[in-house]
Amino acid sequence: MDTDENEHNFEDAPLGYKFKQINGVFMRLANEQLGEDGITFSQMAVLFYITKNGDHKISQKEICEATQVKHPTMVGLLSRMEDKGLIIQVPDPDNRKYKVITLTEQAKLILRTKRERHAETDRNIIRGFTAEEVKELNVLLTKVYRNLAREAESAANVRVNAATEDGAKIALSRRSKDL
To answer: What distance in Å separates the CA atoms of residue 98 and residue 96, rounded to the nearest whole number?
Structure first.
């Protein structure tokens, strides 16, 4: 299949498919670039988050919530980052249940070098766009994100409500059998 045919198929594809394809290409490119420094996109997201929010103690739980990564996955991710010398995890002296995460000098150096690469990637994404198109793209992508986030939250609430109702039905069923 040639490039023109791929572009035509992409143009006619459903939006969800387009976002999936764009995400796949973006992640491949990002991981290739980050792989040069031996880190992954997920690890870089954690480094960026810690840098942006370094004005307070940052816990695993906070990073999980911010990056939408489940706790067991984050534990492994942070452990690998610590093994690579990117972060330091120490028990929080105020609450020993939590670990405080800080960046190492090695991580700070990687972040400085990757900032320019990040800006270059952003420039490549919008190559050929006018300033007005870039502004409109940002508005539209924000709307898409908010719509999907609302839908995901709504679906999660439906699952919780259904599970609660099922639990209540089971409890009532057990009580009626006991009577």
So the answer is: 5
Domain definitions of the chain by residue range:
3-125, 130-179
DSSP state of 14: -
Contacts of 89 (CB under 8 A, 6+ apart): 60, 78, 82, 99, 100, 101
Taking only the tens place, the pLDDT of each residue in 82-117 is: 999 999 999 988 888 888 899 999 999 988 888 888
Please tell me the distance from the alpha carbon of residue 169 to that of residue 75, in angstroms, as a whole number.
36
Q: Which CATH number fits domain 3-125: 1.10.287.110, 1.10.110.30, 1.10.10.10, 3.40.50.150?
A: 1.10.10.10
Give the pLDDT score at 172.
57
CB 98 within 8 A of CB 92: yes
pLDDT in tens, 47-75: 999 999 988 889 888 999 999 899 999 99
> pTM here?
0.63
